[in-house]
Design goal:
Layout: H1 2-65, H2 69-103, H3 109-155, H4 159-350, E1 353-359, E2 376-378, E3 385-390, E4 393-398, E5 401-403, H5 409-421, E6 429-434, H6 441-445, H7 454-468, E7 473-485, E8 488-491, E9 500-501, E10 504-505, E11 513-514, E12 521-522, H8 526-542, H9 547-552, E13 555-566, E14 571-581, H10 595-619, H11 631-635, H12 637-640, E15 645-652, H13 659-673, H14 690-698, H15 702-707, E16 730-731
Parallel strand pairs: 1-5, 1-15, 6-14, 6-15
Antiparallel strand pairs: 2-3, 3-4, 7-8, 7-12, 7-13, 8-9, 10-11, 13-14, 14-16
Magnesium ion (MG) binds at residues 441-442, 551-552, 581.
């Protein structure tokens, strides 16, 4: 609004300047007019002079002509002249008046108009007088003609008259000339008047345009003034509105501040009450703090005292614990010995030789037709019974456990694993796979890469068991692999596998056997085991032309030795796990073999019979056990006798074509298993278990049924026997 006001102010100033300019212009124009009227006056003066001259001329002429018509005319002219002079005077008076008016400082336009009107009037009068003069001239010329005619008539009169005429003629010529001159002057004056009129017209136009401009400017000024007024009004209104707004805002802020003030006051009141309630709490806190400070001051002393007493208590407690520990250790050792004793007793009662049967599935190799028909069936309620269809008759066999074709490697191992772990406790264990070639011996012992057999699983289990006992025991597991072919023992892990090894008695008098030169590998992981197995396989394969045939005609042994040391008691144990994949049990002469093949078969038969005899002798507790009848039994002597444990896994084929061999294998199994417990010669030593032994001894046959399905380790014979001396349970002392 202020800006627009300033603009309007500027505009107003500009307009005032313009008006001033116009006024100046107007003044200039009026000055012009003044100068022109002066000129006009001068002209009137000259005209006056001429008129005077003409009047003189006329009077002269009149005097010359005498009282004639010309004289009368002259009088008329004089009168006319007089009138004109009067008019001239009036004109002069008007002019004077005009000058006076012009000199007066009046710029009123109406006055200007008046002046113009008067000027026009004067002009009109001038015109009239001019017209009259023209008429007069006409009349004069007419008279002149008349007088000329009179002169012509007078010519015919006497000479005197002629002379007079001549003079008149001469005089009239002069008068004519004067007339002409006055006419030309008249003309000139008329022209002048026309010019004046033109100038007057232009001036009028200019005056009109300037009047128009003035009117426009006035209208503009009024318009600007109105705008100015409006802007001013608006400004006032806005200022008022702003004032109102300001007042309103101030009021609002004030009310808000009042509300806030109120809240603050309330808060303050709350804080005050809080403060009042907090003061007692502060007092108690201060009190507590002071008492705590005192306590802290006294704390080191108290602590030292407490520590002293605690130390004393702790050392006393340690002493007590030490004593208790010693007592416990003593009791533990006693318990351990008792447990061994009981364990051995249990084994003696249950028998330490177990016989399992495993039937492999029918395979593509069995061919088709009746030859490949399944002849082995099982008892759904009894997992120890197996039925064989032989020559149309069903023959039943009872073993400790029978695995059907669908039994997995894992299931088989579950039944064996307790036997395996017992060698960690220092027992010797033998696991044999017996049966005709192709019945699944190697599958059960070695298995396949994807589905490993007892060998690898046993080692893995031993590793994990040993790891579990690592807190108290140090264990070392080592592996040997050997082969018995044609009664010759060879080291499968040695540098010279073809070399025959001898079995010798330990010179230390312990009665233990050992094989000088037999390689023993320390194993710590599954990778180590795999390496050992691979090495053994490679050695075995390089020594024969046909591995399959060779392996079926030789016994393969994997001997795992577990040596343990109980760090707390110093107790040492050694357990041996012998895993034997026996040669095929098929009977000699069946294929009409001769030469080396016959010799091989005889050796196999001999060693298998020797094994049967040894087991029989052991189970029937004969005084003499024929270990020396074969390399195999001789080598395994310490693992078969005493409180050692033996498992015979009899493998059979279910195919009809193998029926007779299956029958032989099952008969062998039954014969080994059905061996009754020996005489009650050791009864006196079994003071703790008389009734059970009595029970078993009184009722033959129950031993088999009672041990059926037994999966826990079957301990060995009496601890008091000579064989038990070879037990690996030794103290470090
Ligand atoms: P052996 O060692 O008694 O001569 P093998 O172990 O070599 O017999 O077994 C002969 C064939 O039968 C092999 O191909 C083996 O994989 C297969 N076999 C044996 N037992 C089983 C079983 N329980 N499940 C599956 N296949 C078996
Ligand atoms: Mg085999």
């Amino acid at each position: 609004v202020v800006a627009s006001m300033a603009h309007l102010q500027e505009e107003k100033l500009r307009l005032q300047e313009e008006v001033l300019g116009l006024q100046e212009k107007l003044t200039a124009q009026e000055n012009d007019e003044l100068s022109r009227s002066l000129q006009l006056q001068a002209q009137v003066e000259t005209l006056k002079a001429k008129l005077l001259e003409q009047a003189q001329e006329i009077s002269r002429l009149r005097s010359e002509l005498g009282g004639t018509d010309a004289e009368k005319h002259r009088d008329l002219l004089a009168a006319e002249n007089e009138r004109l002079r009067q008019e001239m005077k009036a004109c002069e008076g008007e002019l004077r008046e005009l000058r006076r008016q012009q000199q007066a400082p009046c710029w009123d336009c109406a006055h200007l108009q008046q002046k113009t009107n008067r000027l026009a009037e004067v002009e009109l009068r001038l015109k009239d007088s001019l017209a009259e003069r023209a008429e007069e001239e006409e009349r004069l010329s007419r008279r002149l003609r008349d007088s000329q005619e009179t002169i012509a008539s007078l010519k015919s009169q006497p000479q005197q008259i002629k002379c007079i005429i001549k003079t008149v003629e001469v005089e009239s010529a002069k008068a004519k000339q004067a007339l002409c001159e006055s006419q030309s002057r008249n003309q000139y004056l008329q022209e002048q008047v026309g010019m004046q009129r033109q100038v007057l017209k232009e001036m009028e136009q200019q005056l009109q345009s300037s009047q128009k401009t003035v009117a426009q400017l006035r209208a503009q000024i009024t318009m600007y003034e109105a705008e100015l007024e409006q802007a001013h009004g608006q400004m006032l209104e806005e200022m008022q509105a702003m004032e109102e707004e300001k007042n309103h805002a101030i009021e609002e802020a004030f009310s808000r501040a009042q509300v806030e003030m109120k809240a603050v006051h309330e808060n303050l009141a709350g804080v005050r009450t809080n403060l009042l309630t907090l003061q007692p709490a502060l007092r108690t806190l201060t009190h507590d703090y002071n008492s705590l400070k005192r306590q802290v001051r006294d704390f080191p002393l108290l602590l030292q005292e407490t520590l002293r007493s605690a130390r004393a208590e702790i050392s006393q407690a340690i002493e007590e614990v030490h004593n208790t520990n010693r007592e416990l250790l003593r009791k533990y050792r006693r318990e351990l010995q008792l447990r061994k004793k009981c364990h051995n007793e249990l084994v003696r009662l249950k028998g330490n030789i177990r016989v399992f049967g495993r039937v492999r599935p029918i395979m593509k190799e069995d061919g088709e037709g009746p030859e490949a028909a399944n002849v082995v069936t099982f008892d759904a309620d009894d997992d120890a019974v197996l039925h064989l269809l032989h020559k149309g008759k069903q023959v039943s066999f009872e073993l400790d456990k029978v695995f059907p074709p669908q039994a997995s490697q894992e299931e088989v191992f579950q039944e064996v694993q307790a036997l395996v772990t017992s060698c960690i406790d220092g027992y010797n264990v033998c696991i044999f796979a017996y049966g005709q070639t192709g019945a699944g011996k190697t599958y059960t012992m070695e298995g396949t890469a994807a589905n490993p057999g007892i060998n690898q699983r046993a080692l893995q289990l031993l590793f994990s068991e040993v790891r579990g006992k690592a807190a108290d025991w140090d264990y070392a597991i080592s592996v040997s692999a050997a082969e018995i072919y044609n009664e010759a023992l060879r080291d499968l892990l040695g540098k010279e596998p073809q070399e025959k090894l001898e079995i010798k008695l330990c010179p230390d008098g312990s009665g233990q056997l050992y094989v000088p030169g037999l390689t023993e590998f320390r194993v710590q992981s599954v990778e180590d085991i795999n390496k050992v197995f691979e090495f053994g396989h490679v050695n075995r394969a390089t020594e024969c032309t046909n591995l399959n045939e060779h392996s079926s005609r030789s016994h393969a042994l994997l001997i795992i030795t577990v040596r343990g040391l109980d760090r707390s008691t110093g107790l040492r144990t050694t357990g041996k796990l012998n895993l034997v994949d026996l040669a095929g049990s098929e009977r000699v002469g069946r294929s009409g073999a001769e030469g080396s093949r016959l010799r091989e078969a005889q050796h196999i038969n001999k060693s298998l019979s020797a094994l049967g005899d040894v087991i029989y002798a052991l189970r029937s507790r004969q005084g003499h056990v024929p270990f020396r009848n074969s390399k195999l039994t001789y080598l395994l002597q310490d693992s078969l006798s005493g409180d050692s444990k033996t498992l015979m896994m009899v493998q059979v084929s279910p195919a009809e074509k193998n029926t007779s061999e299956t029958l032989c294998s099952l008969k062998f199994a039954e014969r080994v298993r059905s061996v009754e417990l020996g005489p009650v010669s050791r009864k006196a030593e079994l003071t703790s278990w008389p009734s059970q032994e009595q029970l078993e001894g009184d009722s033959p046959g129950t031993a088999a049924s009672s041990s059926r399905g037994h999966t826990s380790p079957s301990p060995g014979q009496l601890s008091g026997r000579a064989a038990s001396i070879r037990r690996k349970l030794q103290t470090s002392g």
